[in-house]
């Protein structure tokens, strides 16, 4: 446990000399975030100018297909980007006015877990198989709070109770493989909530789960979020889940946010052809559909992006301008943007 | 099949079956009962004849041997239209039923000991499933992980041998065939796998992958014609025939799934088993593959058994629906009817849990959140297997296994003592 003792020592000065937080500033403000991956095949711009804010108690969904940059955005905010090959090359991620990208490693480490926490998609691979669940939960308290083993174990039991795992006192000494998929995800949530974070990032928290378990987990998340008035950043590709829980939504495509809006508006009248096509291409459980409309083609390769609008090659209304000029973020309404030259045609006012 | 029939009860094999059917149909003496007894008796024939004997005198008046199987399905409460069209059905159905599954059971033994292996129990993965699939029809099978969907698929294509029960493809019982006959019969039922990344051998070209079935079934296409046939198949699924020499890694996920579909179609099967065919694909690609499957069904008159956990996709594609829980079918019938008015509590919970992509409906749905986890199939609850998580459960649920049948408050077959229609997918308001 040398790591633990070493970290304990460093934890002592709790702010670690980081700049003063301004409590009137937004909880989380991401501005023009740029992330690139330097690979053998070239430089891939995985995140290209993502901008959004997240307030306490609100839920923002980042919606996108695989490769759209949604998970990379989350990793950059959390500060766990694999580097190399990933590099944050620009922009800022401000928590209460403090740019987290400018903090040093140690200051960032202290923020992870206590200010920003993350729930991962695959709980089985995110939990360490050789330690008990109680040990892994307790580790949070021992490292960040300098608690004794005994106290940490008590805390771990409380946490398991909080996420409604039956018989928490017995199960605390179980290993991850002894839990079912839904229970494991609960453990993940418990771990993320351990240090009372202000921002919770959930990266596809229910993708690997069955629908009935998904419903349990989303309900639990929503309750805990309301209780603690956390800001929740929900990364997902499921438009159903988004409609159920999110307040605001950012739709990502090929590293850019192509549309950003309050959730109710985007489903009713999307202002970007990609969002519109996506909504038309998903089958719904409450409607018996006709033929599904199809988005032709494939998402572009990030190392070889088309000039102009990245969605243009697949767009049903692409014109000459789209292939030449990348669309800036147009203001559709006060809190809505769309990156489409012809957004006003998609979105009749 | 012929061999087998000859061996045991040569002439009587059919009549008893009919009788059993009729009996079931008339009263509540259960097709489900057959399912329940099957595991104990073990062998298919035993189960059948046992039933036949029992119900022999209950006597279906002069049911022809063919319609027998038909009404059997009805009684097994499996038929899709239990009402009205009973009289017209038999003739039509017989001709059209491509796949008939009766009381299919698969138990995996749990053994203990190394030298002296004793059987200490069984995982009841599939426990008495009956279903029918007609030409050009799609049967959706839904259920959560561990409910036996995939074991069912494996049984149907012959990757696993059933413990008991029968699988008839065009009247031929796969469970009774061996060797060459089995090989030939399997041609008619092919599979599309879930993950297009792992189900295609990365060292084989697309031509080899799609053409491999012809190496095994050498009489389907003459050697010289194979390459051309593969190209036709590529074209059929919307891929460029010139890409025949490419390797799987040169294709995207959606295109790979098309390759998987082309391979499944190589032997011109009538039944395609699709085990979660789109769940590994991105949303914008899913629609392409779903539309392709629908197009192929129209063009080739294929029947699909569509296994999925995504209820939205199943609703889109299925004509009939079977809902599985812990190895048993809990609700079976017309898909539209089940989606609009599910009668089994499990189906209701399952459907209500699917998020609807419409924020206006938030909080308006009749959402049922189930408590706890699915019990172990090695030690399932007595009686109704869903009772441990059911809000309607009463004593009778533990004592008596509810049969899958049409009930007073259920227009389609439902295995719940307290079946009651309830619309859960639309706004409750």
UniProtKB/TrEMBL annotation, chain B:
GO terms for molecular function: ATP binding. It holds the Pfam family ABC_tran. Transmembrane segments: none annotated. Residues 16-81 have a biased composition (Low complexity). Residues 99-351 form the ABC transporter domain. SMART domains: AAA. Residues 1-90 are annotated as: Disordered. Keywords: ATP-binding, Nucleotide-binding, Transport. It comes from the Bacteria. Residues 1-10 have a biased composition (Basic and acidic residues). Belongs to the ABC transporter superfamily. This is Dipeptide ABC transporter ATP-binding protein. It comes from Streptomyces bohaiensis.
């Amino acid at each position: 446990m040398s790591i633990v003792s070493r970290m304990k020592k460093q934890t002592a000065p709790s702010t670690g000399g980081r700049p003063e937080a301004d409590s009137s500033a937004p909880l989380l403000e991401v501005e023009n975030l740029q992330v690139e991956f330097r690979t053998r095949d070239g430089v891939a711009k995985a995140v290209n100018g993502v901008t959004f804010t997240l307030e306490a108690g609100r839920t923002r969904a980042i919606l996108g297909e695989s490769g759209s940059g949604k998970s990379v955005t989350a990793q950059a905010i959390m500060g766990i980007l694999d580097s190399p090959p990933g590099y944050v090359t620009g922009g800022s991620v401000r928590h209460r006015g403090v740019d987290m990208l400018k903090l040093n490693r140690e200051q960032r480490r202290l923020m992870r877990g206590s200010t920003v926490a993350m729930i991962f998609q695959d709980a089985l691979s995110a939990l360490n198989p050789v330690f008990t669940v109680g040990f892994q939960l307790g580790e949070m308290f021992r490292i960040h709070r300098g608690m004794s083993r005994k106290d940490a174990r008590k805390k771990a039991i409380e946490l398991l109770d909080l996420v409604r795992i039956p018989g928490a006192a017995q199960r605390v000494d179980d290993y991850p493989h002894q839990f079912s998929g839904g229970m494991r995800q609960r453990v993940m949530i418990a771990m993320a909530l351990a240090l009372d974070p202000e921002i919770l990032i959930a990266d596809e928290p229910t993708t690997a789960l069955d629908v009935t378990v998904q419903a349990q987990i989303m309900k639990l998340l929503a309750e805990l979020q309301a209780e603690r008035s956390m800001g929740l950043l929900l990364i997902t590709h499921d438009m159903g889940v988004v409609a159920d829980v999110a307040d605001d939504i950012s739709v990502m495509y090929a590293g850019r946010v192509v549309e950003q809006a309050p959730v109710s508006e985007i489903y009713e009248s999307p202002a970007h052809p990609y969002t519109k096509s996506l909504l038309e291409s998903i089958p719904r459980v409450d409607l018996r559909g006709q033929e599904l409309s199809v988005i032709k083609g494939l998402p572009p390769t990030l190392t070889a992006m088309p000039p102009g609008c990245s969605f243009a090659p697949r767009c049903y209304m692409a014109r000459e301008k789209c292939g030449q000029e990348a669309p800036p973020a147009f203001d559709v309404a006060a809190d809505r943007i769309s990156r489409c030259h012809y957004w006003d045609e998609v979105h009749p006012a | 099949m012929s061999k087998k029939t000859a061996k045991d009860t040569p002439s009587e094999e059919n009549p008893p079956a009919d009788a059993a059917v009729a009996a079931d149909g008339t009263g509540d003496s259960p097709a489900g009962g057959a399912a329940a007894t099957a595991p104990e008796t073990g062998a298919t024939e035993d189960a059948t004849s046992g039933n036949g004997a029992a119900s022999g005198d209950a006597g279906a008046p002069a049911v022809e041997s063919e319609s027998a199987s038909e009404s059997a399905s009805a009684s097994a409460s499996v038929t899709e239209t239990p009402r009205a069209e009973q009289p017209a059905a038999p003739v039509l159905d017989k001709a059209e039923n491509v796949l008939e599954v009766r009381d299919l059971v698969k138990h995996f033994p749990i053994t203990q000991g190394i030298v002296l292996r004793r059987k200490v129990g069984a995982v009841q993965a599939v426990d008495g499933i009956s279903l029918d699939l007609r030409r050009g029809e799609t049967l959706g099978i839904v259920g959560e992980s561990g409910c036996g969907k995939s074991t069912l698929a494996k049984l149907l294509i012959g990757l696993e041998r059933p413990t008991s029960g029968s699988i008839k493809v065009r009247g031929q019982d796969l469970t009774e065939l061996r060797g060459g006959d089995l090989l030939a019969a399997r041609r008619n039922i092919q599979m599309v796998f879930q993950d297009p990344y792992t189900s295609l051998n990365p060292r084989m070209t697309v031509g080899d992958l799609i053409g491999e079935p012809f190496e095994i079934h050498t009489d389907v296409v003459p050697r010289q014609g194979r390459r051309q046939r593969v190209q036709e198949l590529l074209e059929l699924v919307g891929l460029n025939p010139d890409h025949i020499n490419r390797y799987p890694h040169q294709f995207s996920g959606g295109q790979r799934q098309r390759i998987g579909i082309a391979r499944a179609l190589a032997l011109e099967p009538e039944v395609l088993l699709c085990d979660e065919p789109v769940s590994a694909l991105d949303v914008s690609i899913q629609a392409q593959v779903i539309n392709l499957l629908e197009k192929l069904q129209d063009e080739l008159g294929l029947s699909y058994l569509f296994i999925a956990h995504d209820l939205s996709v199943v609703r889109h594609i299925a004509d009939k629906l079977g809902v599985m829980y812990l190895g048993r079918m809990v609700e079976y019938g017309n898909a539209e009817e089940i989606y609009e008015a599910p009668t089994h509590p499990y189906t209701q919970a399952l459907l209500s849990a699917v998020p609807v992509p419409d924020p206006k409906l938030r909080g308006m749905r009749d959402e049922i959140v189930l408590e706890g986890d699915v019990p172990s199939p090695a030690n399932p609850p007595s009686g109704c297997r869903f009772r441990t998580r059911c809000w309607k459960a009463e004593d009778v649920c533990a004592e008596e296994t509810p049969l899958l049948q049409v009930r007073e408050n259920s227009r389609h077959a439902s295995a719940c003592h307290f079946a009651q229609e309830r619309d859960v997918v639309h706004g409750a308001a």
